[in-house]
Design goal:
- By secondary structure, this protein is mainly α.
- It is about 70% helix and about 0% strand.
- The chain has 2 domains: about 50 residues, Arc Repressor Mutant, subunit A (Orthogonal Bundle), CATH 1.10.10; about 100 residues, no CATH class.
- The longest helix has 18 residues.
Length: about 170
């Protein structure tokens, strides 16, 4: 006759699954809690697992926010507004979000904006954003990526890189 699983065994199983999940990639408390719901953990079990993972260093919302901001801005060319919105959806503290946003330098941020603009210009088969139709499409795209209009205009109005001085 099969025996019922021990309650401690269930928590240990959940804890081990959550450890593997957190070891695979950086996770925040909210995503771990969502995963525990999928794994059919009770709220008490979820609280116990999350508190243990936090104490062991598997979950650190500030570390997660820094990694998230760096990844989305540098690698995916997202703007601050989109990153902030996505972090708010993850119920992170204001301190964690501020820490994450501070991790990205202004130079990296502006480089991401410039790279996104250049990539979209190439997709539009345009050499520059001087044509009003191209500029409108480019601006709409960059706004959808989370860049503020003022930063977009500054980027598009900036002179092209000057040629290197001849020797």
């Amino acid at each position: 006759m099969p025996t019922k699983p021990n309650k401690d065994n269930t928590i240990n199983d959940l804890l081990n699954r959550a450890r593997r999940y957190c070891a695979g990639s950086e996770q925040c408390e909210d995503t771990v809690r969502q995963k525990l719901v999928v794994w059919k953990a009770t709220p008490e079990e979820s609280d116990a697992v999350v508190s243990t993972l936090t104490a062991e260093g598997y979950i650190d919302d500030e570390r997660y926010a820094r990694a998230y901001c760096e990844s989305k801005i540098k690698n995916h060319q997202w703007g601050r507004q989109k990153v902030l919105y996505q972090l708010r959806l993850k119920h992170l503290s204001r301190a964690a979000v501020d820490s994450g946003m501070a991790a990205v330098s202004e130079e990296d941020y502006l480089a991401a904006l410039s790279a996104a603009a250049k990539k979209k210009l190439a997709e539009l088969h345009a050499a520059s954003a001087e044509d009003p139709e191209v500029r409108q499409k480019l601006t709409a795209f960059l706004i959808s990526r989370g860049f503020p209009l003022q930063e977009i205009n500054n980027c598009l109005n900036a002179p092209a890189d000057p040629p290197p001085p001849s020797a």
